[in-house]
Amino acid sequence: MSRPRASVIVRCYNEREHIGRLLYGIYEQTVDDVEVLLVDSGSTDGTIDVARQYPIDDVVYISPEQFSFGRALNYGVDAADGEFCVFASAHVYPTRRDWLERLLEPFEDDVALVYGKQRGDDRTKFPEKRVFRRWFPDHDIDRQRSPFCNNANAAIRRSVWEERRYDESLPGLEDLDWGKRVREAGWEISYAADAEIIHVHEETAREVYNRYRREAIAHREIMDDDGFTFLDCCRLFASNTVADYRAALREGELPGSALAIPRFRLMQFLGTWRGFNQEVPVSDRLRQRFFYPDSEGYPELSEEVHDRDLRIDYSERDGSIDYTPVED
Questions:
Q1: What is residue 199's three-state secondary structure?
Q2: CATH number for region 6-202+298-318
């Protein structure tokens, strides 16, 4: 049996609501020389039952006690056969049938990693939509200088991973750490704007706080010369909140986002401040809180893309939801 060109690896935990849409989108792709694997970390809601309605190749299991983002990725790549490994969060889905094609296209001989665009849908908080726009622009970046990347929508060269596995001890930002290490080794990172996914975040305020806190802990370990003071927290909360309100006013998002804006920004920067200034190591109890906290809409489609023939029509799968892009 020939080796697939790419292996799509999906990390999941209790993603019954979202996993089917992602898999539907994967099997609509123009690239068909792929295998699809799930790495499940203890789902109890029927996620795997939904996934097995599609012709997935394998499910790799990792216990909640063993889980970290880096370890889950290492498990997935260990089980994969592809020359390139594509990572997708279980709560994302591609907007176009050439998503994989566009994500794999920039892999010239010196490129180790390519990541793609992320946008939100109507469940996405307005400040996070602005975060997506800032970090994932509408233009390609060929061989960027920064190690930034995001494994919710990315692909790596397997041969590079074989020499530099993901750090399994980090509570987050395993992608940034890997990007930093491969850049230091002389490899390149590129960004593919047309490799677009919708990233569905339905987090509570506590979950936003925990996400930014654990990522700040990881960032401090990866970039050990960085710091974040309480003054930074207050300054960035104020400036970003004001900027969000101005943008929301221009875009007609008020009064609907009036409360969500300061709540999200407060949790974002309080979590970041707390994480950067945490003196004690991450305990098993805190790690459990980060990864397993107690705890229908329409996508916001990029205006730059108007090729209807490559749009994935999810309406047949989802019933009454119409995903047809709105023309300007």
A1: strand
A2: 3.90.550.10
